Amino acid sequence: MKKLKITEMNRLSPEQFKEKDKTPLVVVLDNVRSLHNVGSVFRTADAFLIQAVYLCGITSTPPHAEIHKTALGAENSVDWKYFDDTHEALAQLKKAGYILLAIEQAEGSTMLPNLQLATDKKYAVVLGNEVKGVQQTVVDACHGCVEIPQFGTKHSLNVSVTGGIIIWEFFRKLTTKNI
Questions:
Q1: Sign of CA dihedral 52, 57, 62, 68
Q2: DSSP string spanning 14-47?
Q3: Tens digit of pLDDT for each residue in 39-94?
Q4: Residue ranges of the domains in the chain?
Q5: Is the pLDDT at 177 greater than 70, yes or no?
Q6: What percent of the chain has pLDDT over 90?
Q7: In whole angstroms, what is the distance from residue 30 CA to residue 102 CA?
Q8: CB atoms within 10 A of CB 4
Q9: Strand order of the sheet with strand 98-103?
């Protein structure tokens, strides 16, 4: 088995990426502090053709060297918007017909393996601050919560890890792309 060189992978150019049909998913970052987490979410969003990343509150925006370090240019291919307040982003998404889901441990949350998605709907997932998670008022503004089951001694995952798991699962359930 031979590893592929980057030139053998037939990757899209940023222009080709912009033209592709996207997974009907927007990722909302609610006051995410770490620029490396932001960059990682961009890179994962690029890998799975996500519509956009919404950066809210204290979340930094491109261009920024620390975001680029982990995004590796995905901040240039994936559409993004900045909002001073996460509620503004949610209001815009709700008006556009998105189903809003906070990724949070909450009463009545849906465990990720049990999550059922309709392929004719659009979704937005909210990932929260590294310490405080998704703000309670943001959770209240969402249609529901999704929780990643965990079985060890810790009760949280890094934001970029959570983003990777969630984005992959939504891509898998919402697309018919040959995987």
A1: negative
A2: HHHHHHS--EEEEEEEES---HHHHHHHHHHHHH
A3: 999 999 999 999 999 999 999 999 999 999 999 999 999 999 999 999 999 999 99
A4: 14-174
A5: no
A6: 88
A7: 10
A8: 8
A9: 79-83, 50-56, 23-30, 122-127, 98-103, 144-147, 110-111
Domain 14-174: CATH superfamily is SPOUT methyltransferase, trefoil knot domain (3.40.1280.10)
Quick one: tokens of 94?
A: 């709700």
Q: What is the pLDDT confidence band of residue 130, given thresholds at 50, 70 and 90?
A: very high
| Burial zone of 117 (CB within 10 Å; 0-12 exposed, 13-18 middle, 19+ buried) | middle
CB neighbours of residue 55 within 10 Å: 26
Confirm whether pTM is higher than 0.85. yes
What residues pair up with 50 in beta bridges, in sequence order?
23
Among 144, 106, 153, which Cα is nearest to 124's?
A: 144
Contact between 111 and 144 under an 8 Å Cβ cutoff? The reply is: no
